[in-house]
């Protein structure tokens, strides 16, 4: 019981440190302290290096969602809505959340492991001795990379997910591609795409800040690095789901929307 309370207390302290680090990063960004070479390197690691797994996941998510929805909609005589329902689901929730989950596991863990290793091997202390701010050199490039790349990955995942759903709808359920795409175009609104981009930007910042903060607060050698990496991923996933609830509540609360009678 004491160990559990101690773990929760340590986790809470590190979470507060992450919030403080995020504030520091914003202040440094407003002052224009950006290390562009590091930023480009991190953008390549976050974007192109994560593209394949993000798109592969999106194809199968779109295909599975269509399998689950198409049969029921056809039974109710609403087969012409399958494409629109998939488009709305992918845009509002599935694409931004699942892409963020992939990046939290792949990129957030890498941030925590890299910076944690630098911390336990005293490389960060050496940077401070050389008057190099770790926030400028390590945190901000990773934050900008996630902030810029996650919306792009989300948009590509949306298109790929729609492609996966289209393949299933046309080949398994006999829904024509014209009906499928017209339904998506009729039900999808500009705000839905904007909301996906807003969510992706928020998730990107959260993943970067949590990964970097857990790395900077690592102690205990190699074992500490492993623990920090695992805890950073779990925390990032938790924060993504919690923040997704509040973002969705703010963006889509109330009645009305794309699903209107007569469509």
From TrEMBL:
The chain crosses the membrane at residues 12-30, 51-67, 140-169, 190-216, 228-252. It holds the Pfam family MlaE. It is a multi-pass membrane protein. It comes from the Bacteria. It is found in: Membrane. The keyword Hydrolase does not apply. Its main location: membrane. Keywords: Membrane, Transmembrane, Transmembrane helix, Transport. Belongs to the MlaE permease family. This is MlaE family lipid ABC transporter permease subunit. It comes from Nostoc parmelioides FACHB-3921. The lineage of its organism: Bacteria, Bacillati, Cyanobacteriota, Cyanophyceae, Nostocales.
């Amino acid at each position: 019981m004491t160990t559990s309370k101690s773990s929760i207390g340590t986790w809470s302290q590190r979470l507060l440190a992450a919030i403080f680090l995020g504030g520091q990063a914003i202040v440094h960004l407003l002052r224009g302290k950006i290390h562009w070479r590091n930023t480009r390197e991190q953008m390549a690691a976050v974007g192109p290096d994560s593209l394949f797994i993000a798109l592969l996941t999106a194809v199968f998510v779109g295909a599975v969602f269509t399998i689950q929805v198409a049969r029921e909609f056809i039974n109710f005589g609403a087969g012409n809505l399958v494409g629109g329902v998939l488009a709305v689901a992918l845009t509002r929730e599935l694409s931004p959340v699942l892409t963020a989950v992939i990046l939290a596991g792949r990129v957030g863990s890498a941030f925590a492991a890299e910076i944690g290793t630098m911390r336990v091997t005293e490389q960060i202390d050496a940077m401070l001795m050389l008057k190099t701010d770790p926030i400028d050199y390590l945190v901000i490039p990773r934050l900008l990379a996630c902030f810029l790349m996650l919306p792009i990955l989300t948009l590509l995942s949306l298109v790929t997910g729609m492609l996966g759903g289209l393949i299933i709808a046309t080949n398994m359920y006999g829904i024509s591609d014209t009906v499928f795409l017209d339904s998506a175009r009729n039900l999808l609104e500009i705000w839905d795409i904007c909301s996906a981009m807003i969510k992706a930007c928020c998730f990107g910042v959260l993943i970067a800040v949590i990964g970097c903060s857990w790395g900077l607060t690592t102690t205990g050698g190699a074992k500490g690095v492993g623990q920090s990496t695992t805890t950073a991923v779990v925390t990032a996933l938790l924060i993504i789901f919690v923040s997704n609830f509040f973002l969705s509540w703010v963006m889509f609360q109330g009645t009305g929307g794309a699903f209107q009678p007569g469509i």
